[in-house]
Design brief:
Blueprint lengths: L3 H4 L3 H12 L9 E5 L7 H7 L4 E6 L2 H9 L4 E3 L11 E7 L8 H8 L8 E7 L5 H10 L2 H7 L12 H8 L4 E15 L3 H7 L4 H6 L2 H18 L7 E15 L1
Parallel strand pairs: 1-2, 1-4, 2-3, 4-5
Antiparallel strand pairs: 5-7, 6-7
Helix pairs in contact: 6-11
Length: about 250
């Protein structure tokens, strides 16, 4: 289950890659714009502001997130992205920090892109930090005897997303112009162990679902010690959190 409030705690930092992604799209008058995996709808305004005359389509697999999006006035619907099919007038698609949750997403890209009309843009970004201490610490702790029985197979590994070159090579096609790159953001976080709070809203969701309340509190305490060591707080209260992300923009000629 997604917690929109927890996820939006760091919305300024989480949303920045979407702005950088959409800045690469040169569509002028798209007919239909899709927020694929819209979450709480906090980025949908970015699309409607850029292309106010386009038909908006927004969907997410989480009912909690869709409810939050609807409270923002976004006409979102509950639907798994794996079931989505582009309409004939789909000219722009934004898929922001979604596909890392879908193990077979490269196959989905191979299905979706040929179905897009000429001139369409498909854009996505995924976290590329699965080998960072924020995620490696979770996997290491989960693999210890105390937790292995309940958490074996629950977490994603560091191969769930591809490098920019791999995505570019996978999507290479004479009818597609592919722009792939990566960026490492250095977020300045504040608060008590903010990296723990960050991953609680995302990477730790499967762990929370697998543990009861007492186990969850114990797991978080153990993880907190590891993350505070890996990401020490500066004397001014700032904790630096490097975060690598992978971007792809595909334009159908």
């Amino acid at each position: 289950m997604w917690d929109p409030g927890k996820y939006l705690t760091f919305s300024d930092q989480r949303d920045r890659p979407a702005f950088d992604l959409i800045a690469r799209v040169r569509a002028e008058n798209p007919r239909r714009v899709v927020d694929l995996g819209c979450g709480a709808g906090n980025l949908t305004a970015l699309l409607t502001g850029r292309w106010p005359r386009a038909e908006l389509e927004a969907l997410d697999a989480s009912a909690e997130m869709v409810d939050a999006a609807r409270e923002r006035g976004v006409p979102a619907r509950v639907e798994d992205v794996r079931d989505w099919k582009p309409q004939p007038d789909t000219d722009v698609v934004l898929c922001n920090a979604v596909l890392q949750w879908v193990p077979d997403h490269v196959e989905l890209l191979h299905r979706w892109l040929p179905e897009l009309p000429g001139g369409a843009w498909f854009t996505f970004q995924v976290p590329g930090n699965f080998d960072a201490p924020s995620h490696a610490s979770i996997r290491e702790l989960a693999a210890e005897p105390r937790w292995r029985g309940k958490l074996d197979g629950v977490l994603r590994h560091d191969d769930v997303v591809r490098d920019p070159l791999e995505y570019a090579d996978e999507l290479a096609d004479p009818d597609l112009d592919v722009d792939a790159w990566e960026t490492t953001y250095v977020h300045a976080l504040r608060g008590d162990n903010p990296v723990l709070e960050w991953v609680t809203g995302t990477a730790l969701r499967p762990v929370r679902a697998a543990l009861d309340d007492e186990e969850w509190a114990e797991f978080r305490t153990e993880l907190s010690n590891r993350l505070s060591h890996a990401y020490p707080q500066r004397p001014d209260g700032v904790t630096w959190f490097p975060f690598r992300r992978v971007f792809v923009v595909a334009h159908r000629a």
